[in-house]
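Task card 7
Instruction: Convert sequence to structure tokens.
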Amino acid sequence: MTEILESTGQALLYGVVGLAVMAIGFLGLDLVTPGKLFHVVWTERNRGAAVLLGSQSVAVGLVIMDAIRASESERGLGFGLASTLLYGLAGVLVMTLVGIVIGVFTPGRMGAVVLEDSDGRPHPAAWVQAGMYLGSGLLVGAALA
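Output:
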């Protein structure tokens, strides 16, 4: 029973680290999109912003999953948590940079274009950006394996 409780505690701690990385990812996405992301998604009900946030959340989750697998947990719980945090933050950084680079090579301001939601459907650029976030998450996850 002690082993189960210990493993449960460790899972909770890794969950807290994962949640922190996801929150930082949210803040990073908020920086590269116009307006306050929370307001744009939940109040304005912008579908493009929701597509971006959903895809980024899945991508960060994939990075966290692989970060936990690649963590330095054999050196102790503290090392495992620290390496998971750092690997996760590296993934968020890569995804944010990918968003910025895409913005440089697309016409107009990418963040504004992605949030165009005039006909009730997300702008096609939102789906492209979403795919880039997912691809970036898979790329970072593979690098950790």
